[in-house]
Write a structure and sequence with these properties.
Layout: E1 7-11, H1 12-22, H2 35-51, E2 56-60, H3 67-71, H4 84-99, E3 104-106, H5 112-125, E4 130-133, E5 147-151, E6 156-158, H6 160-167, H7 174-181, H8 196-206, H9 209-214, H10 227-236, H11 238-248, H12 270-280, H13 283-291, E7 314-316, H14 320-332, E8 336-342, E9 352-360, E10 363-368, H15 382-393, E11 400-402, H16 405-414, E12 422-425, H17 426-433, H18 442-450, H19 457-461, H20 475-502, H21 504-527, H22 533-536
Parallel strand pairs: 1-2, 1-4, 2-3, 4-5, 7-10, 8-11, 11-12
Antiparallel strand pairs: 5-6, 8-9, 9-10
Helix pairs in contact: 1-2, 2-4, 4-12, 7-8, 7-11, 12-13, 14-15, 16-21, 17-20, 17-21, 18-20
């Protein structure tokens, strides 16, 4: 029978503090502290890699007081305020955890321990295996036949026997153990003068805290130093001992909003992860992500560098004077990017809605002439635009770059324009450079090579049966979208071509085979191919 994967419950608050205090300080080049984020994230990545869990949650303490503060005003009073260097790392860590696809849980009024304890009780009652990842010893009280602890900082694993070996008592006496000794970290008072050895002697000699207090007259008979006076000391601090017991008891009956299905791991957001890795300067992890080796991410898109894309230089051309100015720029440009916007992905039925250009990075324009939604602003006449563009688009000496220009070539052919001067195609540049590095659509290439997320068509046109065709999209959204297409195409060429040019063999394949085939394939796709059935037979 296949062993069931455990439900993993991570004590995020415990690891946050432990990583901050135990690991060397780590900062970015700008001075942003990142050591605690790195430490906790490392542990989470290891858990995912080691256990490949289906259900996992990272639980943090909520801000503000809990029910224990009402029981004991001095609870955790010894703890200093959270250091600013640690406070600055809390939100970046939360963001990173969510980007990893891990459910993050914070419940007001209780601690992370109580949330984890409640989940552990519920799941163990259903005989589901639970693995609690924590560095806190008080969690040992939760261990049973279905609940195990792991301390990922030192890889120690504790089942029932492990708890007994580690602490000297089983999980059923951990609360009593803490109540007698107290806990300096949480300022649980315990019984003065009772340390670990004395607590173990009392518990192994008489049993639970309640049994100890039922048999105070027998304490003197136990074989430990100070046993003769310990009975009196215990009696003096009876109330404090039972208060400590209550403070040390993990609450296992919290009212939680989440059920098991809410703990299911989600698909990691590779784009956000890459952004966080860059911001936090986790270069090794970023490289793993780019190479598809991140244990937390399956099939992550590659992202090689980041470019700041400023859309302020984009223009939507609505007058003939503006169009003429752009035509002049296109004629003077050594190379310009060109793109069409249409009503369909099927070039045999697509109608032109507009065209876009870019002559330099960030310097791009969209010329609309087919947006016909109610209230659409006046646009230039389609025939006027195409007549003015035709000489430039058909000029062999006017060099152009596009993304999948075979499509644009076919669309323009239906409009009576033969696109010439096609020098580069970024889709083919990417394919020839590395055919399996990524998908070769513009959005994937922009993410991989520029570290930039394009405006998606769904963002401006919607999804499903209600998705608009481009002629129905408002110009305030269509303009930046179309201009970006041309701008990104030019930037991709400026990134890809220098790499391709260095490889003589690849450069030859691109120039001598791939690019000459573009107009040939375009004509074949539009006109069809003669098939000699008799010869095939």
């Amino acid at each position: 029978m296949t062993e069931r994967k455990p439900i993993i419950l991570v004590d995020g608050s415990s690891y946050l503090y432990r990583a901050f205090h135990a690991l060397p300080p780590l900062t970015t080049s700008t001075g942003q502290p990142t050591g605690a984020v790195r430490g906790v994230a490392s542990m989470l990545r290891k858990m995912i890699n080691d256990y490949d869990p289906e259900y996992m949650a990272v639980v943090f303490d909520a801000k503000g007081k809990t029910f224990r503060d009402e029981l004991f005003e001095q609870y955790k009073a010894n703890r200093p305020p959270m250091p600013d260097e640690l406070r600055e790392q809390v939100q970046p860590l939360h963001d990173l955890i969510r980007a990893m696809g891990l459910p993050l849980i914070i419940e007001d009024g209780v601690e992370a321990d109580d949330v984890i304890g409640t989940f552990a009780r519920i799941f163990s009652a259903e005989q589901k295996p639970v693995l609690i990842s924590t560095g806190d010893k008080d969690m040992a009280q939760l261990v049973n036949d279905h609940v195990t602890l792991i301390n990922t900082m030192n890889n120690a694993v504790y089942d029932i026997d492990g708890v007994r070996e580690k602490f000297g008592v089983g999980p059923e006496l951990i609360i009593d153990f803490l109540a007698l000794m107290g806990d300096k970290v949480d300022n649980i008072p315990g019984v003065p003068g009772v340390g670990e050895k004395t607590a173990l002697a009392l518990l192994t000699g008489l049993g639970s805290l309640e049994k100890i207090y039922d048999n105070l007259d027998k304490v003197a008979e136990l074989n430990f130093r100070g046993a003769k006076s310990m009975g009196k000391k215990l009696e003096e601090h009876r109330e404090q001992a039972f208060l400590s017991y209550e403070l040390a008891t993990i609450k296992v009956d919290c009212e939680l909003k989440e059920a098991l299905d809410d703990l299911k791991l989600l698909t990691p957001d590779a784009e956000k992860l890459a952004g966080y890795y860059r911001d936090l300067e986790f270069k090794g992890w970023l490289n793993e992500l780019l190479e598809g080796d991140d244990p937390a991410v399956e099939g992550a898109p590659d992202i090689e560098s980041e470019q700041s894309i400023d859309r302020d230089g984009y223009q939507t051309v609505l007058t003939e004077e503006e169009l003429d100015a752009w035509l002049d720029k296109l004629k003077k440009a050594e190379l310009f990017a060109f793109d069409t916007e249409t009503t369909s992905l099927n070039y045999m039925e697509a109608d032109l809605v507009g065209v876009s250009f870019a002559t330099a990075a960030g310097d791009a324009a969209y010329v609309p002439f087919g947006h016909d939604y109610p209230g659409a602003p006046d646009q230039l006449d389609r025939a006027l635009v195409l007549d003015k563009l035709k000489p430039v688009l058909e000029d062999e000496q006017s060099k152009k770059v596009g993304q999948n220009l075979k499509y644009d070539m076919s669309v323009l052919a239906r409009a009576g324009i033969t696109l010439r001067g096609v020098e580069y195609d970024t889709m083919l540049e990417s394919y020839v450079l590395d055919s399996v590095a990524t998908r070769h659509d513009m959005d994937s290439l922009a993410l991989k090579y520029l570290g930039h997320k394009n405006i998606s068509f769904q963002e401006i046109a919607g999804k499903g049966v209600k998705q608009l065709t481009f002629n129905q999209v408002g110009l305030d959204e269509a303009g930046p979208y179309a201009s970006e297409d041309a701008d990104i195409t030019l930037r991709l060429h400026q990134t890809l071509w220098p790499r391709l040019e260095k490889e003589a063999g690849l450069k030859s394949v691109f120039h001598d085979i791939e690019m000459p085939l573009v107009p040939v394939l375009s004509r074949i796709e539009r006109n069809g191919t003669y098939v000699d059935a008799d010869m095939l037979k």
